[in-house]
């Protein structure tokens, strides 16, 4: 294998080094596209202008113009073959690539809102039967129905059906294979909202938040209130005693919560271990239980789940597993994109589960941290 050239220190004050990998015409194109994108008048009428340009130039010339300007600036290529030269060129200058599928469905805001409201509520909630203990921040609301609103830098997926989720999985598999074939240390990005019904992500986020709140109360009882979450460690024996006194579970059941897998070797439980306790249940709906601080009982988030909802939750996890296994086979690093804050607790927790399973020999599964959040 040919040795890579040394990677220069990135200093954007030194323009000669910072833009060494870019050709002069590419810099001119970047400046032109930047100026055009900064024009509010152009942005306000871009659809009409594109339609006029397509009619005036014809499809062939129009596509050539787009590839010379906007498409060429923001899109690596149309298929696996067309992206390889760019990936190789960037790699020669120490710049890696993250492959992300960029095509988005053309949905109206009304259609996007309808799909989101349907996919984020359970059958029980839609029928108005049974009870729900979901907190307000994890309930679907029309105001946030179109998740594309205000998001200009990433693709947004809306749930249609399970077949569509399978199609998204196949697309991600193709991206993983393209990343593996184009470079030895490729990255491929995925979004979990593309792999299943977002109702599960909302409900799981709600459950995790409630369990963490309970965890912090247990920490306060052990005199560890105010300690940073990542530094909080609970003594197992004391935690078992507190849980038993509250009547949440019998002593026999409590012993089954704390296994070698969740404890490690320290004999303490930290925040991540506590979240992983939920993994010990078999049916996914049984993951969605929360502690009632008044009654001291574990209660289901919803009074009942349909068989189809159970299967939808399982299939989402199965699709994640398929992608992680393929990434492992191809030696491709899989980056799980961050999404809306009301989905993120579940996304981070599921990513952690994949990391525990697949990041054995080397790191392959990566989470995304939203450093702009407080």
From TrEMBL:
Keyword Oxidoreductase in record: yes
A Pfam family reported for this protein in Swiss-Prot or TrEMBL: Pro_dh
InterPro entries, per the entry: FAD-linked_oxidoreductase-like (IPR029041), Proline_DH_dom (IPR002872), Proline_oxidase (IPR015659)
A GO molecular function held by the record: proline dehydrogenase activity
Reaction(s) this enzyme catalyzes, per UniProt: L-proline + a quinone = (S)-1-pyrroline-5-carboxylate + a quinol + H(+)
Cofactor(s) recorded in Swiss-Prot or TrEMBL: FAD
TM annotation in the entry: none
Alphabetized UniProt keyword annotations: FAD, Flavoprotein, Oxidoreductase, Proline metabolism
Start-end of Basic and acidic residues biased regions: 111-140
EC top class, as a word: oxidoreductase
Domain Proline dehydrogenase residue range list: 156-374
Pathway the protein acts in: Amino-acid degradation; L-proline degradation into L-glutamate; L-glutamate from L-proline: step 1/2
Domain of life assignment: Eukaryota
Cited SUPFAM superfamilies: FAD-linked oxidoreductase
Region Disordered, annotated ranges: 110-140
Similarity comment: Belongs to the proline oxidase family.
Protein name per the record: Proline dehydrogenase
Organism: Neovison vison
Lineage: Eukaryota, Metazoa, Chordata, Craniata, Vertebrata
């Amino acid at each position: 294998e040919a040795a890579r050239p040394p990677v220069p220190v990135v200093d954007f004050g030194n323009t000669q080094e910072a833009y060494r990998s870019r050709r002069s015409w590419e810099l001119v194109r970047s400046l032109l596209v930047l100026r055009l994108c900064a024009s509010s008048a152009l942005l306000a009428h871009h659809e009409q202008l594109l339609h006029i340009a397509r009619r005036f130039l014809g499809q062939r010339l129009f596509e050539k113009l787009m590839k010379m300007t906007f498409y060429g600036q923001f899109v690596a290529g149309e298929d696996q073959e067309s992206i390889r030269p760019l990936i190789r060129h960037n790699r020669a200058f120490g710049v890696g690539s993250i492959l992300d599928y960029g095509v988005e469905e053309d949905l109206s805001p009304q259609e996007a809102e309808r799909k989101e409201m349907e996919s984020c509520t359970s059958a029980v909630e839609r029928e108005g039967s049974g009870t729900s203990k979901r907190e307000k921040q994890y309930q679907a609301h029309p105001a946030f129905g179109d998740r594309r609103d205000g998001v200009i830098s990433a693709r947004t997926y809306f749930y249609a059906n399970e077949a569509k989720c399978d199609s998204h999985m196949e697309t991600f598999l193709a991206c993983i294979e393209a990343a593996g074939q184009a470079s030895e240390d490729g990255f491929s990005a995925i979004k979990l909202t593309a792999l299943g019904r977002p109702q599960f992500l909302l409900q799981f986020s709600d459950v995790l938040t409630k369990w963490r709140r309970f965890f912090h109360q247990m920490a306060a009882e052990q005199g560890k209130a105010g300690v940073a979450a990542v530094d909080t460690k609970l003594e197992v024996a004391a935690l078992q005693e507190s849980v038993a006194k509250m009547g949440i579970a019998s002593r026999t059941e409590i012993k089954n919560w704390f296994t070698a897998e969740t404890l490690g070797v320290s004999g303490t439980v930290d925040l991540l271990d506590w979240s992983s306790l939920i993994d010990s249940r078999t049916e996914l709906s049984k993951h969605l239980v929360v502690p009632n601080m008044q009654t001291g009982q574990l209660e289901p988030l919803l009074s009942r789940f349909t068989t189809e909802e159970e299967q939808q939750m399982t299939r989402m996890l199965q699709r994640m597993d398929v992608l992680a296994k393929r990434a492992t086979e191809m030696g491709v690093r899989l980056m799980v994109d961050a999404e809306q804050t009301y989905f993120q607790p579940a996304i981070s927790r599921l990513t952690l589960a994949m990391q525990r399973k697949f990041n054995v020999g080397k790191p392959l599964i990566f989470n995304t941290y939203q450093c702009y959040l407080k």
